């Protein structure tokens, strides 16, 4: 069953905006999407390299900030619906907070040291962008959020200029770990031999070829990566980091709450299509409420 994540967010934001102060509980959606491209409210179509009439995957325009990006299996997408009047009424503070969530998840789970880049929004590891962030707020209630490439097949990113940044490649947790392992192996070989020899270089080349073959296989079946063990690890890591950074105490949504969201999502998605904004389908989701 495809979950209408965009409609869920709209419904929850509307509920929080009209609720009494005591009932304005923060909500978090954490999920994977099927292959899809999304544009922000002011995104330039110049960053799209394919024919808009024949996209390789569905293309939607949303109200979030930022430029075009790709969502797909192996990528964890987190949509925090937070009432910033209970936190800090500052979207720049909120964006830096989402970056901090990713930085902590990377460090705590894989020992990866993520970086921020001044003037840009997101998180990079060794020059590769692993997390994209685009948000919007209504009456200080946030929606949209962040996308972390965990085991994502990166091929679909080649059809766009991700986030409008042409000179910085996209990566994933899995490729970052593979690069780190290859570098460590090369250093170990060098120390053992006293110099970099042809066998160590050949071994590194073989590893790179294997990585390329694995990437090609993933692109042939984009959904294969959705069950990668790293996904489970990072699902928990992102939720824990979100709690730490924003001082939340999240609880899984009850079956009744989930059913209410499903019902409201179906009706909301119908109305959104008539208004010219398509809903974005999702796959394998989790909901937590503070």
TrEMBL record:
- A GO term, aspect molecular function: lipoyl(octanoyl) transferase activity
Q: Which EC number(s) are documented for this chain?
A: 2.3.1.181
Q: Which UniProt keywords apply?
A: Acyltransferase, Transferase
InterPro entries given for it? aa-tRNA-synth_II/BPL/LPL (IPR045864), BPL_LPL_catalytic (IPR004143), Octanoyltransferase (IPR000544), Octanoyltransferase_CS (IPR020605)
Q: Which domain of life is it from?
A: Eukaryota
Instruction: Offer one example of a GO biological process linked to this entry.
Output: protein lipoylation
Q: Where is the composition biased (Low complexity)?
A: 205-217, 257-276
Q: Matching NCBIfam families, A to Z?
A: lipB
Instruction: Please list the residue ranges annotated as the BPL/LPL catalytic domain.
Output: 22-206
| Biased composition range(s): Polar residues | 194-204
Question: Region Disordered: which residues?
Answer: 191-220, 257-290
Q: Which CDD domains match?
A: LipB (cd16444)
Pathway(s) this gene product operates in, as recorded in its UniProt entry: Protein modification; protein lipoylation via endogenous pathway; protein N(6)-(lipoyl)lysine from octanoyl-[acyl-carrier-protein]: step 1/2
Descriptive protein name: lipoyl(octanoyl) transferase
The family note in this entry says: Belongs to the LipB family.
């Amino acid at each position: 069953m495809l979950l209408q994540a965009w409609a869920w967010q709209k419904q929850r934001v509307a509920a929080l905006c009209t609720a009494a102060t005591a009932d304005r509980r923060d909500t978090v959606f954490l999920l994977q999407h099927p292959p899809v491209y999304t544009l922000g409210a002011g995104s330039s179509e110049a960053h799209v390299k394919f024919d808009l009439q024949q996209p390789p995957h569905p293309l939607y325009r949303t109200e979030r900030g930022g430029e075009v990006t790709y969502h797909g299996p192996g990528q964890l997408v987190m949509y925090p619906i937070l009432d910033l009047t209970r936190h800090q009424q500052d979207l720049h503070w909120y964006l830096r907070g989402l970056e901090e969530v990713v930085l902590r998840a990377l460090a705590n789970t894989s020992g990866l040291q993520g970086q921020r880049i001044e003037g840009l929004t997101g998180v990079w590891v060794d020059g590769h962008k692993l997390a994209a962030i685009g948000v919007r707020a209504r009456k200080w209630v946030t929606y949209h959020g962040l996308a972390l490439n965990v085991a994502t097949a990166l091929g679909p990113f080649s059809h766009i200029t991700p986030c409008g940044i042409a000179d910085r490649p996209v990566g994933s947790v899995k490729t970052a770990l593979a690069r780190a392992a290859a570098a460590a192996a090369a250093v170990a070989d060098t120390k053992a031999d006293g110099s970099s020899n042809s066998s160590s270089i050949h071994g590194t080349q073989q590893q790179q070829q294997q990585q390329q073959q694995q990437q090609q296989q993933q692109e042939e079946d984009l959904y294969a990566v959705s069950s990668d063990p790293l996904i489970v690890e990072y699902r928990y890591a992102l939720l824990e980091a979100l709690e730490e950074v924003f001082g939340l105490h999240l609880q899984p949504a009850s079956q009744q709450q989930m059913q209410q969201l499903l019902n409201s999502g179906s009706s909301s998605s119908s109305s959104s299509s008539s208004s010219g904004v398509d809903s974005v389908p999702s796959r394998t989701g989790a909901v937590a409420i503070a």
